[in-house]
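Objective 1.3, modelling of assemblies. Example input:
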Amino acid sequence: MSLSNLIQNWNSFRTRRPYEGQYDEAPYKWAMVIDLDSCIGCNACTVACYAENNLPVVGKERFGKGQAMHWIRIERYWGADEAKATEFPERGAEYLPMLCQQCEAAPCEPVCPVGATHHSPDGLNTQVYNRCVGSRYCSANCPYKVRYFNWWNYPDQAWPNPLELQLNPDVTVRSKGVMEKCTFCVQRLRAGMDKAKTEGRILADGEVLTACAQACPTSAITFGNWADKKSKVARMWKNQQVNLAKNSQEKSEEGIRGYRILEDLNTYPSIVYLERLRNLEA
Amino acid sequence: MNYGKRIFLWIMLFWIGSAQVFAEPFVQGGPIGSQTSDGYDALGPVVEQPIEFPHNTHAGRMQINCMYCHTYARRSNVSGIPRLDKCMGCHNLIEGVKDRPRIKKLFEYWENKQPIPWKKVHDLPDFVRFNHERHIQRFYFQEKRPIRETCGYCHGDVASMTTARRVKALSMGWCVSCHQKDHLEKVGSTVTSHGPNDCWLCHK
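Predicted structure (tokens):
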């Protein structure tokens, strides 16, 4: 960000995000919907992400220390009393794919001392590896715990010859001491946006998918351009009555399932989860 | 002058000398004054190619469009080094120059069925995503600037060189210095826009 840009666009930088109509003029705003009732916890999204984004496999010991580098992980929860009441208590696991929520008011951004993470005009929470000095403030401030730190120099150890040939050339191989996180497969988005721009249009719905959405066998993950009001993801947000710029959603009827995780922290995530709401007390 | 003082002076001299060597961000070469103080016009090292390819003959005297050989520039991230059969497509038919040493070398590669191991001159770091297509589409096809000028912003006047040599810094500050300028959107239009300014459009 240059100084002249900072001065010229001072107002827009100072405006509290998000606000109503923020993306009305913008061509792109990337968003996601994850249907938890469809998710079967198969981890295909995680595997796809490892392959697409050059994520290192850290091994059992480091995984135990919490140093795993999975940008998308499946969180498993046991569905409280509901399952235990039946004769199959081992059943009833519930899965929640957790990835960077690309928050509109991301808690990780203002705490970065070197400006390595910021918000892009198309609504992505970016991480620039070259700027990152590894202070790890962002990870500490992330309520979803989806930022991963390179404790080790994985380029030297994670892909012994000839495995380095599997690396995706469109994604940087991160070195020791930098933070990394889900990018919504920005390399695919940028390639698609360039192609569309040359052809003088904006990307069609479903033309570009993230690796996780592409790999999901039950189509639980829907990804798309939220700024395009006709896209599938924008329609789902609307049908689920989720407003990007509000921190609590009012539903007109009971059956509407859409919610965003930890909304009350005012993070304004870009990912809506669909889950049947149950009252276990009753 | 006593002994200690002399040693001290030598050390100081050496230190100043080495500091200057390390402070220079780009490899120096070429005539004095070819580098500006900000490093934006930084002459790269001489790259010795397997065949001393005369760009000045092809692009300069013969006026061949850059994209005749670097054919992917208008539709891909990379501009591409032409394959050997591209060279042979013309040179098979040009009888007049077949006895020249460089063309003989070319035919040698062709008969041995070996690709020519060209060396990369303009090499960006792996964390940078540069798209030739967008730049060529914008400035050559949309704005109708001459091809020699369009390519020349980053590659210099290759049509006056033999083998290409890097003449621009290809550093981030140098990229941004052009992205901040207002460029006309189309030929004849007054609408201007500048290049993208977001980190994640170039950094990957």
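Residues 186-198 of chain A form the longest helix (13 residues).
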